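Q: Convert this sequence to structure tokens.
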Amino acid sequence: MSRLLVLLVVALLLGACAGHKPRQQPSTAPGPAPATTVPETSLPQSMRYREARDGGPDAPAVDVSTLVEPTPKAEARARYGNKSPYSVLGKTYRVMPDARNYVERGIASWYGNKFHGYMTSSLEPYDMYQFSAAHKTLPLPSYVRVTNLENGKSVVVRVNDRGPFHENRLIDLSYAAAVRIGVWPKGTGMVEVRLLDGSSPEPKPLRAVPAVESHSRVYVQLGAFADQGNADRIVQRIARIGLGRADIVTTRIDSRAIHRVRIGPLDSVEVADALVVRLEKLGFGMPRVAIED
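A:
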């Protein structure tokens, strides 16, 4: 009986030791995204990412100044991410059938740690330390030079993702690309986006100049009208509300006169964003932020 009691005590002690084994602490390194049974691009936003808010790395693992920009080359269109048309947040977009000679000015934003390691629209993993970008309508992949119009800095990026789906944003840069041209940590910047197809010499990039010498300005455009009477009524309405002065800029497209109503130049992208929100609440539809010289 005493031997049986001894064996029972030993067994209980061994069980207690096993039950109180210290737990391994989870790693705090970014690492790859958790595995799922389906691509996370098919999951709702609330379930797709491990972090609720985006931002830069807590401690940058890479010196962005040492990174090499991609070399533009001809690539076949990706199997994923080129569906056209496609819809996001109730709005429909069409992928360009031919992007040759594409050049556009607008506002760049950036995305970082929240999306690091997750799939892009082309089902390539997003790496915030690569020079890449998201665009709503360029074919995937594409190569473009993005030039910051406020300081003249530029970077070549490979477009392999869709976005940004903010109404007044032209391109979403990776963290590395945003750092390279000074859009990070500011958040946004006025840029020129120019397609590079690798088949012909690239136009000379804009000369780097101090921001105070930049001639680019930000405006809010309320509409473009073939009938000048409609443009005049918008200008008069803006004056009655007291939102400042709205001007009419007339251009000719295919021998037709188009009258654009705009407010500006404004002091910053942030001021333009705030004005757009106010105009929408006042019933002015969906005003557009435009970058012009």
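The domain at 216-292 is CATH 3.30.70.1070 (Alpha-Beta Plaits).
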